[in-house]
# Entry
Amino acid sequence: MLFKKSVYLFTIMITLIGCKGESRSSDNDSGNGLVNVLGNTFEVGQPRDLNKKVFIHYLSWFGEGEDGRHWSDGVINEPLIGYYNSQSWATHLYHILLSSAVGIDGAMINVRTDYDLDSFDSFVDSLERINEIYPDFTYHVSISYDDQDTTISTATADFTYLKDEIIPNTEHYLYKDEKPVVFIWEYDDFLTSQEYRDIANTVFTDTPPILIKTEIDVASEAGDFVMNSFYPWLQGWNDDGSIWGEEYINWFYRTIVDFKENNKVEFITGAVWPGFDDRDASWGQDRWIDRQDGNLYETLWELINDTYKNEVDWVILETWNDFNEGSEIEPTKSTDSYQYVELTAKNIAAYKGIATLIDEEQWMFSAATNIYKAANLIENGDREYEIYYPQLQQAIEQYLKTNGQESYDLADKIINDL
# Structure
């Protein structure tokens, strides 16, 4: 009899526990009948005391719609979220959250025109939306000056605006060794490295910035640090896409390591690229680097994580979203939309020696996409801001805590007007 009573009581306990779990699973069910345990700490964008950094080369020149600014110039792939606006805060939230979740530390934003600069300013404003939810959220931004048509006069004006109007108005601007960082994307030698250094030192009289330029100045002198570092830029192409810059990148790493050892640069900046294809761009030159189904991207990461392990201080991803020239790693409308952000998360984890924040079911990918859809509805006035924006903030909070499925579901309620 005692045995029968024990079995009966045990059965009741199991039934009650099961019912309790079922009552919660309607809001937070993993799909297999098990209840997810929500994390309570902020993980995405958490400040980390790591010297190794990864940044995306970010294009800010797009206008909304297939016929919008720069989209109309031709692309190989379509973004997963459609032809977006580079000045949209919904777009920025998606890019910032997703890139941060895979381990990226910030964006070096390409600036050439006033439109690019306006996009930069709005990108910084969008970061503040995340800081309202998580004040310690860490994500760096830096100017990457595209020096096409640049003169000493225009460069001086650009650096002055950077010093007076951009850096003082955000806590997110990128610093190294307590100095602001400026990237320079060199194009056909409009200005020399020395001219850029002279301009920078004239404008920034108290704290001259760190300058990082594409391509190595082979005549650099030890201790001068006209440029504090150099980074490689993707190159190598032919008719069948098989040339991807192998000789160039191996020369670059051999040379930059030698430069560091001989005090010609202060730190080493490397780069990876997934491929290249400008054959559909209005300015294209039929240049193509085959992606090799992700194998090229992996090969370039192996140089950093294996061949030159612990030598490379910073890594540039070339690029996040240059859809015109087919070098994007941003998710696309394809059979494997998240392929390159998945590879990025894996390789950054190996590079930094940390665990990835991406869950096995990849809710952190789909949740970011859902957050964009919900934010876009609010931004466009299709959902009332006062009602739905606080709900969007809840979805973002859960995302930052790596509760991907919960974040997805909260954003989904906004999308479906529930």
In short: The chain is about 40% helix and 10% strand. The longest helix spans residues 2-28.
